[in-house]
Design a protein that fits this description.
It comes from Cochliobolus carbonum (strain 26-R-13) (Maize leaf spot fungus). Keywords: Signal. This is Peptidase A1 domain-containing protein. The protein has 274 residues and is of the alpha+beta class. It has 6 helices and 20 strands. It has an 8-stranded antiparallel sheet with strand order 3-2-1-5-4-19-20-6, covered by helices on one side.
């Protein structure tokens, strides 16, 4: 559980930057460096961010389709891109367009490459959604780490935001000093907090410790989104009664490849590149 004594030592804990798990730095994006004959039937679509902080892509009818639909097996089938693997790339620069790649790798070379270059998280075969990431702990780290036990993380690309239990949210607020930003085009009920863009280099990492004790690290380049000279904090406090899990919006995918492998029933997370 969260240790309140850690708040008193926060200035010391936040004095030195901590970077990615070195083992993750060796990972590479899924499709980079592969020969052209190792992939078949690859469809690449642009991924566009709207003013409400939602990513969409074009459907066969040319209507914007929410990114989150790719997490549901029935919705994926309805896109008419009937491929077993979906790769999502969201850039750090919000002015740039992201991409979605629908593919059906057929060679053993691709299978070997993805096994090496991705962290794979098996999913419940009876669940129609790709969203479950089992965890042991979640924490905020800058030199030292303030952490607490959590049951799971839920991947939810219908939102940009990472939601944290109250104790960890308080630490993030202390470290980032956010203020409400009404000028952003948020939807009703969606509060958007801004932070100083120049202060990002001093912000801590968010650390998710998985059941095998490997880490998913989300840095300030990912959870702070800049548009022009304004920066929004893509982190929120969890709703009351939802304190035992972490919500992971598409902020976790910024600068990191995410793969929904429907053929194997697993989620793949690449290394952060930024």
């Amino acid at each position: 559980m969260f240790n309140p004594l850690c708040l008193a030592t926060l200035p010391v804990l936040l004095c030195q930057a901590t970077y990615l798990d070195p083992s993750l730095l060796q990972q590479k994006p899924l499709m980079h460096g592969l020969p052209s004959d190792t992939l078949s039937d690859v469809t690449v679509l642009p991924l566009t961010l709207n003013k409400h902080l939602h990513y969409t892509f074009s459907s066969p009818t040319n209507n914007p389709t929410p990114l989150s639909r790719l997490q549901n097996s029935a919705a994926v089938h309805a896109t008419h891109h009937e491929h077993s693997r979906i790769s999502i790339a969201i850039p750090l620069d919000a002015a740039h367009t992201g991409t979605i790649s629908f593919s059906s790798p057929t060679s053993s070379a691709v299978q070997d490459t993805t096994a090496t270059h991705m962290t794979w998280i098996p999913q419940n075969p009876w669940d129609v959604d790709m969203h479950d990431i089992p965890l042991l702990d979640a924490g905020v780290r800058k030199g030292g780490m303030v952490s607490m036990s959590v049951e799971t993380a839920v991947l939810d690309f219908s939102t940009a935001f990472i939601t944290l239990p109250a104790g960890l949210w308080d630490v993030v607020v202390l470290a980032t000093q956010p203020v409400l930003k009404p000028s952003w085009g948020q939807e009703r009920g969606q509060e958007v907090m801004s932070v100083e863009c120049e202060a990002r280099r001093r912000f801590p990492d968010l650390v998710l410790v998985m059941e095998d004790e490997s880490e998913i690290v989300v840095g300030p380049k990912q959870y702070v989104l800049q548009r022009g000279d304004e920066c929004v904090l893509l982190v929120k406090k969890a709703e009351e009664g939802d304190e035992e899990r972490v919500g992971l919006g598409w902020a976790i995918a910024r600068g990191r490849e995410v793969v929904f492998d429907w053929g194997e029933g697993r989620i793949g997370l690449g290394a952060f590149e930024g």
